[in-house]
Amino acid sequence: MTPMTRDRRARGHWRRQLGILALLVVLVAVPWVITDPYKISICTMILINVILACTLFPLLHAGMFTIAHAAFMAIGAYSSALLTLKAGLSFWLAFPIAGMVTAVVAALIGIPTLRTKGVFFLLITFGLNEVGRLVISSLNITGGAEGLGGIRRIDAIPVPGIGVIEFTSRAANYYFVLALAVLTIVVLVRLWRTAFGRAWQAIGQSEELAVSLGIPLARYKLSLFCLSCFFAGLTGSFFAHYYRFLSPADFTVWNSIYPLVYLQVGGLGSMLGPILGATILTGALEIFRAIEEYKPMTFGVLLVVVMLLAPDGLIGFPSRARVLWKGRRGMR
Amino acid sequence: MGLDQVLQTILFCLVLGSYYTLIASGFTLVFGISRIFNFAHGELYMFGGFFLYYLIGMWSVNYFVALIVCGLAVGVMGVVLERLFYRPVRTHINATFMVAVGLLLIMSNLALVLFGPLIKKVPSPFAGSIRVSPTVSLSWERVAVIVGCAIVMSALHLFINHTRQGVALRAVAQDPDTAALMGMSVDRFRALAFFAGSFLAGVAAAIVIPVFYVDPFVGGNVMLRAMVVVILGGLGSIPGAVAGGFALGFIDGLGLTFFGYPAYTLGWVIVIVLMLIRPMGLMGKELG
Amino acid sequence: MTPILRCEQITKHFGGLKVLEHIDLDVHAGEILALIGPNGAGKTTFFNVLTGYVRPTSGRVLFDGQDITGAPPDVIASLGMVRTFQAAIMFDKMTVGQSMLTAHHLGGRGSVWSALFNRPSYRQREAAIERASIELLEFMELGDMKDELVANLPHGRQRALGVAMAMATRPRLLLLDEPVTGMNPEELVVLMRQIHDLRDLKQQTIVIIEHHMAAVMEFSDRITVLNFGRKIAEGNPAEIGTNPDVIEAYLGAPVASAADDVPHA
Amino acid sequence: MKGKRWTLSLVALLTLFLVVTSVAYAQTTEVLKVGVPNGYTGSGASSGLPTLKAYKIQADILKQHGGFTVGGKKYTLDLIQADDGYTAAGGRAAAEKLIFADKVRFFLGPLSSAAMMGMLPLVEENKIITMTNSITTEKFKTGCRYIFQVNPQGGLVLASQVMRIIQTNNVRKVAAFSPKDETGRQNWEQMKTGIKQVWEKEGADRVKIVHEEFGERGQSDYTPILAKLLATKPDFIILGAFAGEAPLIVKQSRELGYKGAFANPMSPDPKELAQVAGAQNVYEYYSWGIVWNDLPKIDIPAKHAGIYRKLTDKFGKEPLVEFYQRYKAAYNEDPPGAIVYMLDNLPLLVLALEQANSFDADKVVKTMESWDVWPSYYGTGVWSGDKTTYGIKHVATKSSPTFKQQGTKLISTGFVMPELVP
Q1: Are C76 and C97 within one domain?
Q2: I want to staple D240 with a disulfide (CB 3.0 to 4.6 A). Which of A181, C52, D184, D233 is the partner?
Q3: Per the omega criterion (within 30 degrees of 0), is the bond before D179 cis?
Q4: R_g (Cα) of chain A, nearest Å
């Protein structure tokens, strides 16, 4: 990080570092503190959503508003499941392959579609997600609409020094997805602050100006799209071996929209946004599972309220609140 | 397949087309003026269906009266949505999208709580069916869908082209900024658009629901189809909605007849390809 | 010596509309060439053709004797022909500093890995880029503003930043599209002076579209006049100032006063 | 601005939800928590909510009759619902919530195969006794200790009615239209065995399967598919468990000029059917379920009288009548016809608990397996299924009421008893 950008971050820079460290400690401690398996698996679910929301963060900033993320997650999930089921591969081999398969498919789809912009890209991806779901449910190898069962859990792996790690316990799966989340976020945040990240942001803010400065749009958009989908694919692979049953119903347009909701509710201001949004909303959904019939409504109300009070998301709220306090109607 | 079956196929393609046109026209109208994808449009349609059920099934109001009342009631709902939820976030595109999603969730769930999960049937005033050929027949209620679609669409055409409000609406749709410069209150026209669009949703429900049924879950499928139609025809274009509606009617109808259910993919595939080669759709204009 | 840019018979039609007709133009290293003409003369379209935003209907664009007709904008930029925009298109959500770093894209980035792991090679490159950025900002008298959000900059400063960003790509040929429109006289003089210095101190070759006649007359070495897509005159300021066709084109108004006319949208 | 005032009221709404939640969590002593994972939102709700209502009625009736005794303590049931969203992930989440947050050891449901598959590993690992209604042989192939499938149509009952219809109506061409999910395929496969039986009896050319179609649930216009299907001129259409869609399918195929018979295992409420399809269109429509306004007289063979009393002791002298009256009183509407399938889940669990006199899963399972015949709301049932068919004897085969609908009128076509099945 160069001084020029650091100046702005200098305020509370160390505080931030400490905060991140503390957060990590807490996250690692979770399985010891929370013994209730249900709560652990909620945390697992939260982390899955955090990853998905975070992979959307750079995409939205670069002006790619996609509603096909669930479809790409599905590609990762099914390819990993089938590789282990049909080809008998070890999970540890299938996992990265699943990610790459997803990235490749993303490239093949991205090359024609990324030429479109804004609402058209949104609609195309929307359609792609529908097509993907319908294809999965009409193929035989994917088990069609009935779904694909009998998927192995993550294979045990010997780790020098620690010994063999079994993935029978929830804690183990939790740690796995936690590691994946950390990896994803670190990679994305790091890249975001490099010249590449700057180029992506530039494209998001003005393609015209970006290209005039010699930034090749197509290549940069495609690479980011593939990267994002790569992580979505990895997440999908974990999803498959965690739930051990896949059905098209898990990858509807809604499953693509929810991560966007987390991201938007959390806020696009920084990577903290998607993390916050996914945590709060997934948590909320679980809490409100108690009043089953009202769950979607509750979610909807949360969403609308946040959007009305803080259109820029929760992390943008404090500054916005100040604006409102001053009496200036930011909403208008 | 025999001639009579060809005829049969064509007939329900027409019915399907009219149905799609009815549900899509309101959706596209709203988008044309306000640039908002009102994902709650399908839910408005659903509410329209339930209103009709209570008006006719419970209080046995005359069908045609009920039809108008449905339109008005749903129209008012639309205005409320615009005023209370969409307007405050107008300047934030993403937030608008999210609000639309939220409203969709709230309304469908609300319907489930209010009306219960079971399907409700609205008796159609048009009983019996006409013989088109010795072997082919078409029920009057389906005829009503085709005719109803024709009437509603021509009425809409008159409104857009031959009333002051309508012409103004179109002006705003084409260029909100200039319209604003010319001292038109864009806000007022957005409200008007939401009213008109939602009114159409209510009327569509009143015409279509008697053929099928209404339950709290009909909104979703309606929405999906409407989106395909609107993209096919071009975002925000009313003639496009008609063209797209019937296009999809035939795509779905023929597809289902010949390939069975995977055919539901067909519409989307075509739409995606279309958007790649001609983003403005069949009859649409490029967005500003 | 061979011209750095040579345009041969550039023609552009939009449908029936003849926007550019058989334009020939040479730009020589180290000069400031002004491109003037009434509204709708096709000046901006000409820039768009040169920089690959628009494909010419016919004609060739030679940059360093290399045919770049119809090459994509980013390639042309990487070859060293960079333009600014008439409308203030900016990276509004960035700070001035970030914008400058971004503008150094062509300065090289190294591999993703070196960036991801913040390797020394990458750090050095970033440091260099930053030094260059600061230097340019100082040059354009923006040094004290590098932490400002671009959106919060006054209009004049934004235009200056635009020039600085274009310069960050180390262009061999800089195309400026009405850099001083909408500026107050003081700002205007400052910016024109800075542009002039770019040429004098950095040997920067510049083609500038400008309406402000006084400025053009004072700062440019050579002037080309377009009218209705045709080149009607070319020569040094003195010649142009007295050229009857030009005066005609400007509705007979004395050239020097045809200044400050509103920028066309 | 108005927007803000409105949002405030929404916040109020939220807090209300919270209150409801806490209330929902409030508990009384001496109650056994039983989880009811099912679809309560989305299209799953159309079967999930009525089922929950039915269980609640049964729990009340049980309470009135003094609950049940385990280890000398009286127990009543506290039903805890959890939405499985009709998906695998949803099913797993629901199960986890019930097992670990609500500390539930016993499940009634789910109906959705996907949800069942999702919660399968959990249920087995944690020894959760699950009385499910989801029809899927798949999970039994994996040999599940703790899952009992209480649906009446352990295939055989479906088959025998299909066989009977083919014979009595002298059917020559059968066409099948089923939902494109596991439930749909299962139902069709099971009913197909009925046709196979006809073949065995009367030769393979007696009746032909002219068309098989699988379709999406929840669509509104089935005309295209039906036109295609009717082009093969069938005289008997078998619907593989369409629920809300069935009335439309009947209506639309009649509109296309179909005159033959229908069979549909998961029939909607008869009134609904007549309403939607139009009374004139509803004839030769066969289904499995109860005729509420003409409840059959249950006559129990003397040898089973004792067993049947176990049920009547806890769920009323005439269990069906009692249930029907209570349901109608509570919700002033007839229960959906299909609800009758779910009525045995709760009683069987209760009886097993009491007899095992323990909440230990393995004991309870042993007890249930030990029954060679058990009481059902409309007679008796047995556990069927063996290594070859299901892998484990946990699948109910029991007498099932069948009926035929004529307009709004339901004509009971009697019970199909397991004994009838070859």
Answers
A1: no
A2: D184
A3: no
A4: 20
Answer whether residue A307 is part of any domain.
no
User: What pTM was computed for the model?
Assistant: 0.87
Place of tokens 């149905």: B19
User: What is the domain count for chain A?
Assistant: 1
Please indicate, yes or no, whether residues C179 and C155 belong to a single structural domain of this protein: no
DSSP state of B86: I
Q: How far apart are CA D63 and CA D75, in angstroms?
A: 8
Residue C83 in contact with partner chain A when CB distance is under 8 A: yes
User: Using CB atoms, which chains have 3+ pairs under 8 A with A?
Assistant: B, C, D
Chain A contact for B59, CB < 8 A? Answer: no
Cβ-based contacts of A248 with chain B (< 8 Å):
none
Predicted confidence pLDDT, tens digits, chain D (422 residues): 445 566 666 666 666 666 655 555 444 448 999 999 998 887 778 788 889 999 999 999 999 998 999 988 899 999 999 988 888 888 888 998 899 888 999 999 898 888 888 888 889 889 999 998 876 655 555 668 898 888 765 566 778 888 888 888 888 999 999 887 777 777 888 788 888 888 888 888 888 999 988 887 777 788 888 888 888 899 999 988 787 788 889 988 998 889 999 998 876 777 778 888 888 889 999 888 778 877 777 778 888 888 889 999 999 888 989 999 999 999 988 887 778 878 999 999 999 999 999 999 999 999 998 988 899 887 888 887 665 556 678 888 777 778 888 888 888 887 776 543 33
- Token pair 């499985």 is found at D84
CB atoms within 10 A of CB B155: 12
Residues C31 and C63 in one domain: yes
**Inter-chain CB proximity C116 and A8 less than 8 Å:** no
- Strands, E assignment, D140-269: 147-149, 173-179, 208-215, 236-239, 261-264
Does residue C257 sit within a domain? yes
Question: Half-sphere exposure of residue D402, counting CA atoms within 13 Å on the CB side?
Answer: 23
Task: State residue D321 phi and psi, 5-degree precision.
Answer: -60, -50
Q: Which of residues 175-214 of A touch B (CB under 8 A)?
A: none
Establish whether chain C is in contact with chain B, requiring a minimum of 3 CB pairs below 8 angstroms: no
Contact residues, chain C, for A4 at CB < 8 Å: 97-98, 100-101, 130, 133-134, 146
Handedness of CA D202, D204, D208, D211 (dihedral sign): positive
Within 10 Å of residue D387's Cβ, how many Cβ atoms? 9
CB contact under 8 A, A209 and C51: no
Instruction: Choose one of C142, C165, C188: the last residue of a domain.
Output: C165
Judge whether A298 lies within some domain: no
Contacts of B119 in chain D (CB under 8 A): 46, 244, 247, 268, 272, 276
Q: What residues have CB less than 8 Å from C51, skipping those under 6 apart?
A: A212, C73, C76, C77, C81, C82, C83, C175
Q: Which residue does chain A place closest to C110, by CA atoms?
A: A195
Q: Name beta bridge partners: D409.
A: D406
Give me the percent of chain B exceeding a pLDDT of 70: 96
Burial class (CB in 10 A: 0-12, 13-18, 19+), A198: buried
Domain annotation for chain D: domains and CATH numbers:
156-288 (3.40.50.2300)
Cα separation, A313 vs A311, whole angstroms: 5
Tell me what pLDDT residue D356 has.
93
Query: Residue C99 half-sphere exposure, CB side, CA atoms within 13 Å?
Result: 33
C neighbour chains, 3+ CB pairs within 8 Å = A
User: What's C258's domain CATH number?
Assistant: 3.40.50.300
What is Dmax (Cα atoms) for chain B?
A: 62
The token pair at C245 is 């066709």
Which chain B residue's Cα is nearest to D280? Answer: B128
The answer to whether A and B touch (≥3 CB pairs < 8 Å) is yes
Tell me which residue has tokens 């899963």: D361
Say which residues have a Cβ less than 8 Å from residue A318's Cβ, sequence separation at least 6.
Answer: none
